[in-house]
Amino acid sequence: MLEVRNLRKEFGDFVAVDEVTFSLPAQGSLAIVGESGSGKTTTARMIAGLETPSGGHIAVAGAEPAPGRPRSRARRARGRQIQMVFQDPYSSLDRHQRVGDAVAEAVALHQDLPAVRRRARVAELLDLVGLDDRQARSLPKALSGGQRQRVAIARALAAEPRVLILDEAIAALDVSIQAQILALLARLRTETGTALLFITHDLGAVRYVSEEVLVMQAGRVVEHGPVATVLDDPQAPYTRRLIDSIPKPGWKPRRRGDKGAD
Amino acid sequence: MTTAPLTRTTTGRTKRTRPRDRLTLGAGCVVALFVLLAVFGPLLAPHDPNAVDPVNVYAGPSATHLLGTDDTGRDLLSRLIAGTRASLAAPAVVVVVSTVLGTLLALTAAWSGGWLDRLVSGALDIVFGFPGLIMAVLVAAVFGAGLTAPVVALSIAYLPLITRVVRAAAIKERNLPYVSALQLLGAPTARIWLRHLLPNLLPLVLVQATIGFGYALLDVAAISFLGLGDQPPDPEWGLMVSNGAPSILSGLPQQSLYAGIAILIVVVAFNLLGTGLSRRLLGENA
Ligand SMILES: Nc1ncnc2c1ncn2[C@@H]1O[C@H](COP(=O)(O)OP(=O)(O)OP(=O)(O)O)[C@@H](O)[C@H]1O
Ligand SMILES: [Mg+2]
């Protein structure tokens, strides 16, 4: 479904992403982990077509995007292939748009439905991510970070993409909602064949979301394999360090400082 | 402070109106008053602003002439009121033209980035290098007196001010993930501009236009004062200041003084309104 070969991104003479190669089959789920600044978001933005790669190839469903600025019809078609939930929930929604309208706008761009059915579809999408009617009528500022993140997930799902990239989109959610969203994504995988690309710096969470994991350090892939293998028998010293920093059983949880969590 | 009235804020909480907010409100009322005068002025003036009265020149304040009369016996209050339209219209055109063009230019530059952005910024830097008023005076001197040439020149001179501020904000806005999300959904660029970017930039544009209006009014008045803009017998304020100037030395400053005060009030009111709006709409602590 998604083929990435020798992907590279340079900002000036700084190499943010260096020869990244992986593939993601339909219904697959791949996690990209790595510490802050390792190039995860940049990789995702290139795959989504929001950033021009300095080198390498990206093919979605076998087709490489045409070079240059795509027209909006082509962009809508691409939107049905790839959607992305952005890392920062505070700026991924238009602050003057009611969140229900944001989802409705996404639905309208992708499905030519009469108003009544469109409203029903919006309500259905919001319900899938656990948001009610009152929240749908709110402006983003009235919602918590986790609630905004769920709006962004609903908006991405409106395009019914074949690949969904979630950039740190799950970490900010509290445990019960997290379980609901993960169940929703798992159902999506099996029912529609959507492939998932999880981006996270939390190697501990990877076990629950993906079969395969790719570890990035300073723009390079240092380890790539099935989650169980990588977690139980890490080859790269960097991966070992990441695993050692995962809280062990008996570790006393401290409250996350994230004011975004709901 | 404890006696300040309670008002509801947008968040629904009650909060004491601070003196600064009252100042903004006052400035807004003054602006509204002058806008009304500009629209209905000719109907409200107690006398014909151009009716000369040779026996009543330089009359002091009286019941018939509340502010007295000028060198040809015309009623000063009527002239001030009737002149509001002429005095406000030209700066309004300057502000509207430079704001609309500047905003479009800023959005285009911010949206496309790269060489187009550099071109726009470079061109604006060059325009910014010319003092607007001097440019307007030169243009008027070349094309002859009249408002058209100075208004065009000032509109261009005011472009960099608005464009720079809006461009900086537009670049920030354009790089927010919600714009990426819209692009990723395949939203047409026109839709992203009209439905998302422009509405979000509108408060800033409004603030800039409001503050710019005060300066534009001052510049237009100065051009008229120099005899290059509006022509007599129009009761335009800058013209009135210059018309009354010769008699100041004879101890009869009324005409220049009143017109000058009118200019001052409007300029200060627009400035206070602009900074107040900026505080409220943009959350600046300026
Ligand atoms: N537009 C840009 N211009 C210059 N440098 C950039 C740009 N975008 C990203 N970078 C740099 O590229 C590197 C990788 O950034 P990226 O956002 O991909 O990291 P990340 O792995 O997503 O980190 P985090 O976990 O903190 O989100 C960083 O060093 C960053 O400073
Ligand atoms: Mg990131």
Shape of chain A: globular
CATH class of chain B: Mainly Alpha
Summed over residues and divided by their number, the pLDDT of chain A gives a mean of 87
Oligomer: heterodimer
Helix coverage percent of chain B: over 70%
> CATH superfamily assignment of chain B?
MetI-like
Q: Tell me the strand percentage band of chain B.
A: under 5%
Structural class label of chain B: mainly alpha
Characteristic terms for this protein:
heterodimer, A: alpha/beta, Rossmann fold, globular, B: 286 residues, mainly alpha, MetI-like fold, two-stranded antiparallel ribbon, 9 helices, binds adenosine-5'-triphosphate, binds magnesium ion
3D structure, described in words:
The complex is a heterodimer of chains A (262) and B (286). With 262 residues, chain A is of the alpha/beta class. In chain A, 37% of the residues lie in helices and 23% in strands. Chain A has a domain at 2-93 and 165-244: 3-Layer(aba) Sandwich (Rossmann fold), CATH 3.40.50.300. Chain A is built from ten helices and nine strands. In chain A, the strands form two sheets. Chain A has a six-stranded mixed beta sheet, sandwiched between helices. Chain A has a three-stranded antiparallel beta sheet with strand order 2-1-4, covered by helices on one side. In chain A, a hairpin with a 2-residue loop joins β1 (2-11) and β2 (14-24). Chain A is globular and about 55 Å long. The model of chain A is unreliable at 258-262 (pLDDT under 50). Chain B has a single domain (23-44, 75-281), classed as MetI-like (MetI-like fold, Orthogonal Bundle), CATH 1.10.3720.10. In chain B, a hairpin with a 5-residue loop joins β1 and β2. In chain B, α8 runs antiparallel to α9 (254-282). Chain B starts with 5 loop residues before the first strand and ends with a helix. The mean pLDDT of chain B is 87. The interface between A and B is medium-sized, with 33 and 16 residues. Bound molecules: adenosine-5'-triphosphate and magnesium ion (MG). Adenosine-5'-triphosphate is lined by residues 11, 16, 34, 36-42, 87, 201 of chain A. The site of magnesium ion has 4 residues of chain A, from α1.
